[in-house]
Structures are given as C-alpha cells and as structure tokens.
Amino acid sequence: MIVKYFSTGQRPQRRWRTAFTAIRFLRTISHFANKVPKETSVSHFAIDISSNDHDTPYHVFSHLNDVARKTLINMVKEKSIELLNELGGVQRVATILGSNVKEGISDCENDLLHRRNVFGANTYPKPPRRTFLGFSLAALKGSTMIILLVCAVLSLGFSFEQQSESKHGYSRWYDDVSNIVAVFLVVALCAGANFWLSNESREVSYASDDIKVQVVRNGRHFLVSIFDIVVGDVVSLRIGDKIPANGLLLEGFCLQVEESNNGGELDNIISVDVSRNPFLLSGAKVIDGLGFMIVTSVGMDTLWGEIMSSANIDLEETPLQESLHKLTSCIGKAGLAVAMMIFMVLLFNNTQKSFSEMLRAMVGFLNSSMTVLNLAIPEGLPLAVTLTLAYSMKRMKDENVMARKLSSFETMASVTTICSNKTGTLTLNQMKVAELWIGEEAFGGGSLIEIEPGVSKLLKEGLALNNTCIVGEQNAGSTLEISGSPTEKAILEWGATCLGMDIKEIKQDCQVIDVKAFNSERKRSGILMRKANEKAIHTHWKGGAEIILPMCSYYYERNGTVKDMNGEERMELEAIIERMSAKGLRSIAFGHRKVVEQNDQVYEKLEQSGLTLLGIAGLENPCRLGVKEAINLCKEAKVNVKMITGDNVYTATAVAIECGILNGEEETAKVVVEGEQFRNYSVEERMKRIDRIRVMARSSPLDKLLMVQCLQRKGHVVAVTGNGSSDVPTLTKADVVFSMGIQGTVAAKENADIVMLDDSFTSIARLLSWGRCFLSNIHNFIQFQLTVNIAAFVFNFIAAVYCSEAPLTAAQVLWLNLLVDILGVFAFSTNQPTDDLMRNPPADKQELLISYSMWKNLLVQALYQAAILLTLQLKGSIIFRMTKNVKKTVIFNTFALCQVFNVFNARVSEKNKRLEGIVKNKVFLMAIGGVVFLQVMMVEALNKVANTEKLSLTQWCACIGVAALSWLVGWVCQLKSNACS
To answer: Where is the P-type ATPase A domain (predicted)?
Structure first.
C-alpha cells in the first residue's frame, strides 16, 4: 500500500527509495508512540482539562523529515484510512505531533514558534495588491477617457503644424496640452479613489477572514485567531464553525460537515466519526453535531489555503456605479456627436478660405470642439460614487459596522422592513437564571436551594452533561471559567452557584453514549449516558419548556415524589410557563428518563416520551440600552421592524413591548403569530396579514425564509439579521443581510453583506441613516454635476457656432472641471446623516437615477447660468464697457462662482435648509475656501496659464452678484415645489 501511495509519476528506483523512507517514518512513529500509553476515548463531549498527564513528548515532530510530513498532509487530503491505520490511528498521530488529546499542546511561545517553523503558519499568500498604475490604466481604458484623449492628441497634432506662427501656435499648443493634462488628472483622481476604496475593501476582507477559534493548550481553553492555529492544536468544533485547518477528529457526536467550498459540489454533506471517517478539511462548515479535532496541516498545505491564495480581491461595481458609468458613457457619446457637429458647422462657415488658412482654422475649430466636449462629459460622477463609498465604509468601521458588500450601502436607502432576531440583537445576551420551578414550587435564582438529594443529583447531571459549554478548572475559591452560548453558560453558572454542582466530579462518574446537539429545528438537546457501576441508561433532554413539557408524563416535587402529569397538573404547569414568559423570562425545561438494561442488551436510544420533568428555569435577558430609541427611529423613517424568535408567544410579546416593537395596547392576535400558524395560512391569507404581523414566535428557519419571501412579493425591500448556520437559506434571499460579529457563526458571516461588530440593533439604525445619506449625497452630486455640464454645453455650443470660437480656453475648462470635482467630492461625499433624511420614506428601488424634482432643479439652474453667460458673451462689452479679453475673464469668473453658490442648492434638494450641517462639515468649508482662493489666484495671478485678465473691484462685485442670484433662483424654485406638494 505504501509503494502504491508514493509511486505516482516517479521512476522505479525513486519509488522504492520513497517507500523505504515512509517505512522508516512508520517505524519512527511506532517507536515514539509506544512510549506513550494508548488513551481510551473520552466519555463525555467536553474535554477533561484537569488531566495531569504531562509525559507526552511534545517535540517528537522535530524528527519528522519532509517525506514524513507530506505523508501526513496527503493522508488527510486524500482521506486514506488505510494509511491512518498503519500509522496507529488518530491518537498515535496526535502523539507524534507532540500533542495531548486532552490537554492539547503547550502555550509556550517558543513551542508555537517552533511548530510554525517546522509545519508552516496557518496563513496564505495574499493576492497581489492592485497598484495605483493598474487602476490608472483601467480608468484610461474607459470610452469617455479615450474620446477625450484621442481628440486632444489630434488637436495637438494640428497645433504642431502651425508652430511657424510662434505666438499663436504656442498658445494653441498650450491649450491642447491643457486638454491632455485634464484627461490625466481625471484619470489620476479616479485611480486614487479606486485605490483607496480597494485598500478599505481588502482590510474588511481580511478582517472578516480573521475569525476566532477555540483551542486547548496546556489544558486550558483559549480563543485565538484562525491565523495563529498551529499543527498539533486541539480545536473545538460546534454547529456553524468553519474547519480552521486540515485535521483528524479526536472525538465527536453526530458531526456533519459541508465540503462544498472544497469539493465544488453544492450540499456536499459528509458525516465524520472517529472510526470510519475522521478526516476534516480546512474550509468545510460544521452543520450539525460537535467534537474536537487535532490539526495535522495548515496554510498552504491545505486545499483551502491554495484556493484562497489564488483568489483575487477585486472591487465589485455596485448597481449605482454601473448606472452612472452608462450615463457618463451615453453623455460622452452625445457630447462627441455634438462636438463633431460644431466642428462641421465651423468648417462649413469658413469654406471660402485658402487651404493653408483652412488648415490653421481647423486647429481652432478642433480646439473649440474639444472645449465643448470637455465640459459636456460628467467624468466626476463615478469618482464621486467611489469616494463616497470609501468614506462611508471608513466611517461605518468607526461605528462597529463592517460592510462586506459595497452595494449594501445603496440598498439600505431602500429598505422598508427589517426582520430582526431577538436574542443578542434586541437583548443584551447576558442571561441569568431568575427563578426555578420544581413541580409547582418556585425558588429564587440567586441563592442556594434545598431539594431532595436524588432530584438534585439528576438535575446536576442534566445541567453538567447536556451542555456544550467549555468549562475550565474549578478549584476551591476560584471563579468558574465557562465559555459557550449565553443560555447554557447561565444555566451552568446557576447550577454551580445554587446547586453546589461539581462539574468535574459529575463528568468523571458518567459516560456519555450519544448526543443530540441543539439546533434551531430541534429546539432542544439531549444526551444518553451511563453512570459508573450501574446498568441503567439515563436520557436527559433540555430545551424550550413548551417543547419538553409534552414529552413528559410525570414530574418531580421538591421532596422527590414523582407525580403523574394529568390534565389538571399539566394545565397548571403550562400556566406557570405562561406567567414566566409574560415577565419576559425564557423558560427552559429539563426532562429525564431511566431505562434499565436487561440480558446485557446494549441500549442506545434517546427516549422522547415518558420523561419525568425535573424542573423549569426562567432566564432573564434584558433589552439593550438604546434599542427602543433605535426602533422608534426606524418607525419615523417609515421602516417596519419585525422580531423573529424561537421563544414562545408570551416571552416574545413581553420583549417586543419592552423594546418598542409593540405598544402594549394592540390586539396581540393581529400582530403576533407563531411560526407554525403562519406556515399553515393559505397563500392569500398570508399575503393579506404579512404587513400587520410584527412578531413571529416559535419560528423555524423555514418560517423566517417564508416571511422574507412574502414581504418581497409584496414589494418590500427586506433586511434580515442572522446568527446561525440555519439562517443561511434566509440570508441568501434577503435584500440586505446583517450578521452579528460576536454571536454570529462563520456561516452566517460569510453570507452577510454587513457584519455588526457589536451585535446591537442600534448599529442597524445608524447604518440605515448612512445608507440614506449615501444615496442622497450621490443624487445631490448628480444634480450639481449635470447642472454644470448642461449649462456649459448650451453656452459653449451657442457661443462657438455664433462667434466661431469657444469663449473658454482649455486651461479654464481644466480648472472648471477640477473645481466641480473638488466641490462635489467634499460637499457631498463627506455629508453627515441628518434628521430630515430619517423622516423621509425609503427610496424607491425602481426609481430612475435622476428623479423629476432633480431634473426640474438642475434644468432651472442650468438654463439660468447659460442665459447669464450668453448675455455676457453677446452683450457684455456693451453693458459693462469692457474689452474682449476682460469679458472672457468675467465669463470664466462668473461661471466658476456660480458653481460655488450652486453647491449649496444641490446639497439639500427638497428642503430649504441649505446651511444645515455645514458648520459641522469642516472638510466642506475648507474645500469652499480653497476653491475661492484658487479662483482668485487664477484670475489675478496666473494670468498667463489661465489666459485671464485682472479684474477691478467693481467687476468682481458684478461677478459675485450675478453668481449669488443662482442661490435665490434655487430657493424660489424649491419654494414653489414645496407649495405644490
């Protein structure tokens, strides 16, 4: 078998040499493995970390050669059970790797470093970062940039033909170079914005990959980064976890993993067990069961590492960016057509000239056409979107929100319904047992209770063994170290405090035979266990009280008496559960059944009926601070909030009232529904009631999915929160997906658009405001940019045809483009969310990119500016008694100042609060000040570069006064709009 294993693609001598090396490796393994006694399988599914066995030779792996290490790597990759058996089994491999199956490896830094040096780190080479030059070349390939560049080069070529007339030729050459510089400046700005956004996206990508993994080192449990895993580590696996590296299962119950990421097949679900298939591959997801694994290879020695190292992290293009690129391209093509038309008209009007004169004139005509084209194309639109995305992503990271998909910012502006989990999102997820009922007698949750020893012992066994928490060393006087789900952690802490439970002692005296782990469908967990020196088999179930109570036929009283659960007694217990739930407590019941084995018959069945009720615990989980205000904010924003939970109707209703989803005066039957009830509605009834339902209790993942689908069919844009792997089907269907950064599983995070690092609903409300702010900023910039483009296009077209030359030079056009981009980016990209935005209804997802009100505002402004500029062009010399060059400077100066005033109009398109939030936006104020200063310099100091003349104080006042009227025009226009609405 070994010869066959190493024979692929090698010469016969080399094959035998390799096989001989492998045999030596096997003998080496046997030699060292025999020094350590074989360890029996662990009797319960939490590793006993109190073992004092420190005799494991931790550095045996140092003697392994390359062939031996590759043998281990390939054994797991190829899932070779034959080779594993020859190596002596899983526990022998653990020994050779210097790991103790109970205590893991040493947490000494030198040991960890040595393992990384020998076996490698659990990282992979990052995909090559896209350079600034790469983004520049990509921006230069755009059709708009190609049109501008080709036209500029052609114009430059004609200018060189005319250099014999030095002064005139030099001026034209200077203008043409300005056109080329304009193209490359725009390219540099777009490349810089994309480069920044790419870096932000890479940081988010790597942050989302840096998940925490629970490992055992020196007998203690630690949460470490997945990148810090080393070969030999013992790793804890639970539902929803991602396998962090290749390895072998040490122990586990009902463990199932999905290997679709590695195998390429969808729903490739594989059962993993110690005897038949202990192999675990990096990147697979745990979908059921629990267990512990030992790591045998990491990083690039795993298929997952190879896949991740070859994956490229490219910027996704959001739908809005795609729409803007199409808009810019269409405007560019239209601008090119009009520029050609201007060129042909000018050429036709000068046909009577000689050829040499005609050639000289063509340079001017082409330059005029280029000027019109430069002003007509809104190349700043994609730039604004990119910068706004980068800025929003950075700001949201500061507010504990990590956006994995850029398009989620756009979609958040259109969200009409948020379907939220209860536990951990609306509540603090810091549970504690508030009360316990044994039969019909209540006990407080914070002090020692005295019950019959037999009942107490059974309850302790159920609490300690039917639990997936990791428990640390429990010494006298020391704090109990528990990590795991908040519910189970609260129950264990209560058991240790109020029942005097010694978890270590219970686990030593009992052997767990089978486990049914809790999941969202089962809503309960169970174990089958046997006590030492006893032939009886015990079944323990724990779960929601409404789930466990129907499984019980009897119940214990405080004194240990077992009573039948007849109709009257059952109703009383149900009433107790209702009273607990009405107080907002989550009721957890514990059931037990004992079966005596006869005639040495092996009994391996978890009974699900005929149980005896041990007790019912009520857990309190208060709402988060600020969640009620956040939900009220969502209501003001016309966004419905629905709570979907696995708790019963009474608990769900109480929590919904406390956090503000329900007001307490509504008829519960109309707004609260159970998952099964909702599922059994007819399609018509479901669609009729979906809008009114605000709480769904006792829901399954399929109920949650059904609600999302119904809402979407009703036209809603739905955002959903998800924590577990069972939520994945719903997460793939929702419009926006939130995952919790603390309690969320890896499967949920990987399917999420946005990860809430603090697990709080208040972060969702903040993101809602930022999404609306993002879309509003983009719409405002579109309005501002197109106003400039249309005004410049109309003015230059008429002036060029009427006067046979463009009134603005290429250098002036270059400055105007930069001015518009600078003002637009800093005025709109850095805008903060306002209260007015949250009072508006959600944006219509099907709404056109440019709405009717936007068209109206921008056309009014554009026509005003074009009319003013044409008046100055045609009658300016007469009105203001100025020379031709001064007139051109006045036109240029007035047009630039119009944009400074118009930016205030565009900032708030539907309200008359143009100065709202400006004082807080210091970046915008600095941009305004900088633009005004540079404009003064262009006119007064850089005359040669800008082809301008110095203006008198009167002329400056005239320019400012005419430009300021654009503010008044916008204000009157919006007053009429508000009056009509």
So the answer is: 211-311
Helix (H, G, I), strand (E, B) or coil at 236: strand
919-938 pLDDT, tens digit per residue, is 677 777 888 888 899 899 98
**291/320: higher pLDDT:** 291
pLDDT surpassing 50 at residue 167: no
Q: How many residues does the chain have?
A: 981
DSSP string, 56-73: --TTGGGG--HHHHHHHH
Tokens of 671: 């707004």
Q: Determine the Cα–Cα distance for residues 84 and 415; give it in Å rounded to an integer.
A: 53
Q: Is the pLDDT of residue 481 over 80?
A: no
Count other C-beta atoms under 10 Å from residue 238's C-beta: 17
| Residues whose CB falls within 8 Å of the CB of residue 468, separated by 6 or more in sequence, listed in order | 45, 46, 238, 290, 484, 485, 488, 517, 518, 525
List alpha helices for 586-740, DSSP H. Answer: 627-636, 649-659, 668-671, 675-680, 683-689, 701-713, 728-733
Q: Spell out where 179-300 has E strands.
A: 212-217, 220-225, 234-237, 246-258, 269-272, 279-280, 285-297
Q: Is the pLDDT of residue 170 over 70?
A: no
CB 703 within 8 A of CB 520: no
Least confident of 27-41, 117-131, 524-538: 27-41
Instruction: Give the SS3 label for residue 473.
Output: coil
Could you give phi then psi for residue 294, rounded to 5 degrees? Answer: -110, 135
Contact 217, 104 (CB under 8 A): yes
**Paired strand residues for 216:** 221, 234
Residues 418, 719 contacting (CB under 8 angstroms)? yes
C-alpha closest to that of 372 among 155, 138, 137, 143:
155
Neighbours of 117 (CB within 10 A): 10
Q: Report the C-alpha gap between 319 and 385 in whole angstroms.
A: 11
CB distance 191 to 140 below 8 Å: no
551 has pLDDT over 90: yes
Banded pLDDT at 911 (limits 50, 70, 90): low
